[in-house]
Design a protein that fits this description.
Shape: elongated
Strand order of the largest sheet: 1-2-4-5-6-7-8-9
CATH class: Mainly Beta
Distance between the termini: 30 Å
Strand content: over 45%
Largest sheet: 8 strands, antiparallel, barrel
Number of strands: 9
Oligomer: single chain
Length: about 160
């Protein structure tokens, strides 16, 4: 239970940059904060996952870093993942507010199945997604992620940048 509380606290800390900017009256953040939710399939167990992310921007042209925290529930286990996503935006294919991206992620994954002892490990995954810029200036996305090493086999995630 203490681990779950610590993970929840870590997740809330991802929202700190947004809260600071809103308190100052600056509503356009340099690093957008968003929420994510979806379905995870791992070792024949299905889960719903919820989380938050911070888009830390371009590391170089078209290369982005977006760390995120996700908590998965159901299927007889609880999973928490802190992922460091690095993605390439195919800007030459972007049209009418739509865009494509692909990349990889190194994540710290903690799993607590009901029938086994809790375990933490580093995981590696590949991902691809579709983005949409809405008229309000916010971005949404649909992402598919496949585990390569010690990661969930398949994840489908929808996300939205709130700030």
């Amino acid at each position: 239970m203490i681990r779950v509380r610590l993970l929840a606290l870590l997740g809330l800390s991802l929202l700190l940059p947004a809260a600071t900017a809103l308190a100052q009256g600056d509503y356009e953040l340099r690093f957008p904060v968003g929420v994510r939710a979806g379905w995870t399939e791992w070792e024949n167990r299905g889960q719903v996952h919820l989380g938050a992310h911070v888009a830390l921007g371009e590391m170089m042209e078209n290369l982005y870093f977006t760390p995120n925290l996700e908590l998965g529930f159901g299927g007889g286990s609880t999973v928490a993942a802190f992922n460091g996503d690095v993605t390439w935006s195919f800007s030459e294919m972007a049209t009418g507010g739509w865009g494509l991206y692909a990349g990889g992620s190194l994540g710290l994954i903690w799993a607590d199945p009901e029938d086994k002892a809790a375990d933490a490990d580093l995981g590696l995954s590949v991902l691809a997604g579709l983005t949409r810029r809405f008229t309000n200036g916010h971005d949404g996305f649909l992402e598919v992620r496949a585990g390569v090493l010690d990661s969930p086999g398949l994840k489908v995630t929808f996300g939205y940048n709130l700030f």
